[in-house]
Specification:
The protein has 322 residues and is an alpha/beta fold. The chain has a single domain, classed as TIM Barrel. Helix content is 38%, strand content 17%. It contains eleven helices and twelve strands. Strands 1, 2, 3, 4, 5, 8, 9, 10, 11 and 12 form a ten-stranded mixed sheet that branches. A two-stranded antiparallel ribbon has the order 6-7. A hairpin with a 7-residue loop joins strand 2 and strand 3. Helix 3 packs parallel to helix 4 and helix 4 crosses helix 5. It is globular. The structure holds ligand PBG.
Length: 322
């Protein structure tokens, strides 16, 4: 059968007809809202490169999470802006540190909220690298113990999901073993398995105050042209005990999301990163495109590529429309 018997436009005629044949949906409970939490009270410090986003103290973070929950976004991902930084990132695994404090407050106020914690040293080290330095290089194996301590402190505070983003080799296994040893065998790990050394993290580094003071992250994050390597990273993290894997960034790596989903059939998370958010916001501010429609189209493409869950700064604003 072909035209004129066949007319592809028949199911495009009305919103209800289009909805009947829609293959992919984005729903608020698949979205994770990142939050930047800082010490203090009543503090809201706007992030210039991320319009609509702020660093917030714990009290306002609790309020923001409540607003996300009310819109059906059940998950938040915490990043800490600590009071102090040192060479070993010790404010990151201090039980009184800003993220552990925020986790306790969030779980107390919103027991059903799913609290994800990013595990990485870069926000807490004075040099800004994701691991400890030795002779100007990031020392993989020495970093594993510190990441494991951080994960345990967050789990003790009540974190629901541990999400290591440092890209050290072997960290999923080290964290899993430490969590299990401390009685947190039911706390899942969502590993940033295929995390690329990307220009799209620019606004985040302003938001989290985590720009490396020297060099860059190409010695541990993945080289953007590589695909097979992403599959090996995912395979390795799954073998070490990751419960779900993440691809990051999302939009420039839709092919990786699809290959990982098709190959491993495990829960896949995509991180729609700060630069992806800010470029839509900037264009919308200039009146060059409809920001909401563009953001929804991007999230739809990420779901269509095979992601089950999406970490996105658009979560709360789009949840209203979904
Ligand atoms: C920390 C971390 C980064 C992001 C999430 N966790 C930044 C980086 O690796 O430099 C980026 C998130 C974003 O851009 O939204 N390792």
């Amino acid at each position: 059968m072909n035209f004129p018997e066949l007319r592809m436009r028949r199911f495009r005629r009305t919103p209800a007809l289009r909805a009947l044949v829609r293959e992919t949906r984005v729903s608020p409970d698949q979205l994770v809202q990142p939050l930047f939490v800082c010490p203090g009270q009543g503090l809201d410090r706007p992030i210039a490169s991320m319009p609509g986003y702020s660093q917030q103290s714990v009290d306002l973070t609790v309020k923001a999470a409540g607003e996300s929950l009310a819109r059906g976004v059940n998950s938040v991902l915490l990043f800490g802006i600590p009071e102090t930084k040192d060479a070993l990132g010790s404010s990151g695994y201090d039980p009184k540190g800003v993220v552990a404090t925020a986790v306790r407050a969030l779980k107390k106020a919103h027991p059903d909220l799913v609290v994800w914690t990013d595990v990485c040293l870069c926000e807490y080290t004075d040099h800004g690298h994701c691991g400890v330095l030795r002779n100007a290089h990031v020392d993989n194996d020495a970093t594993l113990e510190l990441l494991s301590r951080m994960a345990v402190e967050y789990a003790k505070a009540g974190a629901d999901i541990i999400a290591p983003s440092d890209m050290m080799d072997g960290r999923v296994g080290a964290i899993r073993e430490t969590l299990d040893g401390e009685g947190f065998e039911m706390t899942p790990i969502v590993s940033y398995a295929a995390k690329y050394a990307s220009a799209f993290y620019g606004p985040f580094r302003e938001a989290a105050e985590s720009t490396p003071k020297s060099g860059d992250r190409r010695g541990y994050q993945m080289d953007p042209p590589n695909t097979d390597e992403a599959l090996r990273e995912v395979e390795m993290d799954l073998a070490e005990g990751a419960d779900a894997v993440m691809i990051k960034p999302a939009l420039p790596y839709l092919d990786i999301i699809r290959r990982v989903k098709d190959t491993f059939r495990v829960p896949v998370c995509a991180y729609n990163v700060s630069g992806e958010y800010s470029m839509i916001k900037a264009a919308a501010e200039k009146g060059w495109l409809d920001g909401e429609r563009a953001a929804l189209e991007v999230l739809t493409s990420i779901r269509r590529a095979g992601a089950d869950m999406i970490i996105t700064y658009h979560a709360r604003e789009l949840a209203e429309l979904l």
